[in-house]
Amino acid sequence: MTETDKGGRKALRPQLLSGFRDFLPQQMLLRQQVLGRLREVFERHGYEPLDTPALEYAATLTGKYGEDEKLLYRFQDHGGREVGLRYDLTVPLARVAALHANDLVLPFKRYHIAPVWRGDRPQRGRFREFYQCDVDTVGSPSMLADAEAIATVAEALQLLGFPEFTIQINHRRIVSGLARLAGVPEEGAGTIYRAVDKIEKIGPAGVRDELIARGIGADVADRVLDLVQLRGGTAEMLAELRERAANLPEVLGGIEDLERLFGLLAALGVPREHYALQLSMVRGLDYYTGPIFEVAVERPKVGSVAAGGRYDGLIGSFSGRDVPATGFSLGLERILEVIKEFDLLPAPRSVAQVLVAVVRERDADGAAAPDEGTAAALALVTELREAGLRAEVYLNERRGLRDQFTYANRKGVPLVAILGEDERARGVVKLKDMATGEEREAPRAALARVIEQFLEELYGAEATTKRLQQ
Amino acid sequence: MTETDKGGRKALRPQLLSGFRDFLPQQMLLRQQVLGRLREVFERHGYEPLDTPALEYAATLTGKYGEDEKLLYRFQDHGGREVGLRYDLTVPLARVAALHANDLVLPFKRYHIAPVWRGDRPQRGRFREFYQCDVDTVGSPSMLADAEAIATVAEALQLLGFPEFTIQINHRRIVSGLARLAGVPEEGAGTIYRAVDKIEKIGPAGVRDELIARGIGADVADRVLDLVQLRGGTAEMLAELRERAANLPEVLGGIEDLERLFGLLAALGVPREHYALQLSMVRGLDYYTGPIFEVAVERPKVGSVAAGGRYDGLIGSFSGRDVPATGFSLGLERILEVIKEFDLLPAPRSVAQVLVAVVRERDADGAAAPDEGTAAALALVTELREAGLRAEVYLNERRGLRDQFTYANRKGVPLVAILGEDERARGVVKLKDMATGEEREAPRAALARVIEQFLEELYGAEATTKRLQQ
Q1: A71, B45, B211, B417: which has the fewest C-beta neighbours closer than 10 Å?
Q2: Distance separating alpha carbons of residues B401 and B407, to the nearest angstrom
Q3: Is residue A291 predicted with pLDDT exceeding 70?
């Protein structure tokens, strides 16, 4: 260690804000791998990248998130403007669609991978800064756009190796019809949604108790529970619902949407076990108007890893013209919890594939020109990089080989290349396999190829001269 | 267009904050390509990825940036804490190095690519939110770490195709010795630095005038100018400086550092035309303590595209222990200006490589199950994606082929695949080349391969089933 303890010096205590995180390299390597795969799937489905500012006018963000609006990070900027940190990626998209209406070709399919900020109470799995990964289509009223979003998320979770998941599908008009079907007046509807939303957590009996506790009659509660627990094939459930909602045209429109959507999902070949009609699923955000989606993962019990739906009115709140839109948002943090739990994507421990040791000649200390040993190490590391390898050279020429091996071991660099006086004289390089401690020699001219072969045996063909997938 | 003008409806005017930008897909495709190449070079040199929060305690950020501290975005969060948006990536690294001292193996080489925020007056090429791309080494006092940072930046700019650039190198101790060598008292030193820093802009005569206008004697001004304009080979310049600074040990230490650094750069094989000793180069930030670097690009005249240096005291301000550190910061926005000016990286216009048209059967309108034409298009797009192509399907089945061609043209999708009733009957797919309008048929089973060949001819082998480089 090169640090000197200065004892009495007063230092600022280094602190992270609660709910915020540093991502050290090993975490970053995994995050980049996951984000790389998501981007790959999004682009394969023709979604195009978009980015927007972290800060928006506060007026852009307010009135969109219901009660949770209090979680917005708001403040006044240098010019006295009321501003806020991005709370999700959907409202910025709506603002973009309205602001750049003349530059965008509709339907506009975009993906957006970026952090959002919410002043939530930090708790297990909840952060104040976290990444969302969104795919949305602006400008298509067709259920095709909804089906595409669902197919994309299904493929993404499959590619990440999720062992089991179900995309639950419902419709905003069916949700809002629930109260009317149950005969509950408009103003009591919110109570019903909030209670029904908990059915997975507290069970039907718990929902019934809560409804009754909140002043809903037992017969109404039973009717609501009866509806949201319709079972059977999707077609039968929708047919049953159609019968019960015969006089509610709004609900009938929702049923038609879902029938069409399920037909398109089948035509797109989305595996049938990965999506299901779930009449008890309610999405809290105010702006949804059509189909709504949610992916809850049971093992490990991380809750919702993705959610979305159609929001045909949101863009109009900026542009004054109705522009239909629909999409899906994946939560990176919960996806990572699942990936870690099942060890779905083992990430390499280090970026560098090989460390070139510096074998220095003692007498050269203090001279301006590097000694021959250092110069040889630098020439070698440059050569390996030119061959496409990720190579580092040990950055302190005053340390001996033992310190350099310790460094490679602690970092997880699999190989150390050693080019001492003897090796230089014989035109070879010594390679030390850090996992086994074995050493072998390779002719200098063939070194890059020997290292590639070694890495191929260690990690498979992917991990050699190509970049880490990200 | 599916929008309906609702006339009287009151909508919020969609607005971007001044100094902030949306990046629409075409801009994003170029940005991602540049960032991908930077990451590639950084990782090839063994720098590992790190990320830190956008928000830090204000106390972490203050006292680091001199006069510019007023540009910090500061506010109180929900818990009444004084917080600020990240102003650069160096101070967060110092905070990380102190906070995670027990988890980091030193020397710690990290790269960090992320936005930073400054409440600057927006002007051409200046933004309030912009990306920095940093490489730094923590924990090595050796000039090797400085040489590695310089070699990395040189390789990055070469890989991006920069036609000409010079990494200017100076040393903080030489800069602070300038005033003493010129016989100016401590308190006048700032005046000298600020004037000398303008030498590229206003010329030596301009600097002389400014120094005199600020109360520096003409003889002193001449001595300063004489020093910073030393010409010749690096070795001669440093030898001359060594002679003049014979009684200033601080300056002599700086000269030794630079002699060593230039020797290491040669050993690393950094092309000699890409770096130079520049005694008039001054870096404003308070925290530099050793060598300092800057890359100014002359064509187009965008100013500094990268800058950095050694800051051995900054981490200690958090940890109370001296930990040496050095690195380089590249500014993405100015790099992009150069890339656009010289068209160095033509980005593809669209993510999708092929649009599958929906040829719908008229009579199927309103039915729940998709008609045969839509179903066939969906099956085809899924097939192409499974073959690794980036394929989209037109997301509005009520539009005719002409609208779909217009869409492909405006988006820049190079191919449209058409699978009408006739093609289905014959087991073929029609492919329309949108650049020439030419149509040809391919057997359905061979379609993915035919498209790959077409794209290879159009863009070269890189652009086919592999992901866009990013």
Answers
A1: A71
A2: 10
A3: yes
Contacts of residue B102, Cβ cutoff 8 Å, sequence gap at least 6: none
Counting the structural domains of chain A, the total is 2
Out of A342, A375, A400, pick the residue that ends a domain.
A342
pLDDT for residue A363 is more than 60: no
| A151, A74: one domain | yes
From the list A3, A15, A382, which residue is nearest B322 (CB)? A3
Mean pLDDT in residue range A332-353 = 91
With beta carbons less than 8 A apart as the criterion, state whether A195 and A211 touch.
yes
- B269–chain A Cβ distance below 8 A for any pair: yes
Is the CB of residue B253 less than 8 Å away from at least one CB of chain A? no
Residues B429 and B329 reside in one and the same domain:
no
Q: Is B50 on the interface with A (CB under 8 A)?
A: yes
Residue B18: inside a domain, yes or no?
Answer: no
- Whether A10 maps to a domain, the answer reads no
Tokens 């799995």 belong to which residue?
A125
Q: Which two tokens stand for residue B407?
A: 């869409």
Write out the residue range of the structural domain in which residue B193 sits: 25-342
Do residues A49 and A160 share a domain?
yes
Of residues A78 and A137, the one with the higher pLDDT is: A137
Are residues B128 and B103 located together in one domain of the fold?
Answer: yes
Answer yes or no: do B227 and B331 share one domain.
Answer: yes
Phi and psi at residue A121, to the nearest 5°: -70, 120
Q: Is the pLDDT of residue B180 over 90?
A: no
| B264 within some domain | yes
* Banded pLDDT at B366 (limits 50, 70, 90): low
Q: Which CATH number is B220's domain given? A: 3.30.930.10
Residue A440, beta-bridge partner list:
A431
Minimal C-alpha gap between A105 and chain B (Å): 7
CATH of the domain at A446: 3.40.50.800
pLDDT band at residue B467 using 50, 70 and 90 as cut-offs: very low
Tokens of A394: 């040990």
State the helix-helix crossing angle for A249-267 and A172-181, rounded to 10 degrees.
140
pLDDT at residue B8 is higher than 50:
no
Tell me: the pLDDT tens digits for A182-230?
777 777 787 888 888 888 889 999 999 998 998 888 988 898 898 888 8
Q: Please name the residue of chain B whose CA is at the shortest distance from the CA of residue A22.
A: B52
- B82, B202: one domain: yes
| More confident: A310 or A224 | A310
Pair (A381, A318) in one structural domain: no
Cβ-Cβ contacts under 8 Å, B317 against chain A? 11-12
Q: Is residue B221 part of a domain?
A: yes
Of all residues in chain A, the one with the smallest CA distance to B409 is A105
Distance CA A420, CA A426 (A): 10
pLDDT digits (tens, 9 = 90+) for B130-156: 999 999 999 999 999 999 999 999 999
Of A342, A365, A399, the last residue of a domain is A342
B313 in contact with A at a CB cutoff of 8 Å? no
What was the pLDDT predicted at B469?
37
- Residue by residue, DSSP assigns B116-154 as EE--PPPBTTB-SEEEEEEEEEES--SHHHHHHHHHHHH
Q: Same structural domain for residues B335 and B364?
A: no
Which of the four pLDDT bands, split at 50, 70 and 90, describes residue A362? low
Per the rule left: phi > 0, alpha: psi between -120 and 50, beta: everything else, B63 is left
* Residue A408 forms contact with B (CB below 8 Å): no
Cβ–Cβ gap A73/B77 under 8 Å? yes
Measured CA to CA, the distance from residue A210 to residue A194 in angstroms comes to 10
ipTM (interface predicted TM):
0.92
CB within 8 Å: B100 and A22: yes
Residue B80 sits at the chain A interface (C-beta within 8 Å): no
CB pairs under 8 A between A and B: 364
